[in-house]
Amino acid sequence: MADGRRLDVPRGHARTFGSFLRLNPDAVGRFAEAIARFLGTGRFLAVQTIIVVLWIGLNVFAVSLQWDPYPFILLNLAFSTQAAYAAPLILLAQNRQADRDRVQAEEDRARAATTRADTEYLARELAALRVAIGELATRDFIRGELTRLTEDHPEDREKKSKKKKDTAAQRAPDPIA
């Protein structure tokens, strides 16, 4: 190595034209979104309309100030330049929004999958509880069985028939009256 450079040590970046243009992509994206957001407002359209009306008015009526006579070539150049910068900025802002939408959609899909799994789990648990409750004796079932058993008992039949006779005797009209 005649020039004294070592091969085990990385060398610095060579100075190129591109090395001066290293920009933070997020900063450029935020700037593009701000510009695109402003270009889509009524304020921008109003300001641009006022500028164009003043431009044309001054160039038509102020003879001593005519910097852009009738075909308004300079105004057309300004509009072309504005369009040349506006279109890529708007596309960049749309791409960033599409990326955010894609991330949001993925998060929504994951949340929906989790919700679905939770719902299916709860449905299985509820079905298991219904099956378990179906095998248990409920209060109404026990009451019905006790009533049926007491109706079948002979002593209860005698009490019921005596009770019916007493009730019928109370309702019968008194023949003496």
UniProtKB/TrEMBL annotation:
The keyword Manganese does not apply. The chain crosses the membrane at residues 44-67, 73-93. The keyword Transmembrane helix applies. Keywords: Membrane, Transmembrane, Transmembrane helix. It comes from the Bacteria. Residues 147-177 are annotated as: Disordered. Residues 147-159 have a biased composition (Basic and acidic residues). InterPro entries: DUF1003 (IPR010406). This is Putative membrane protein.
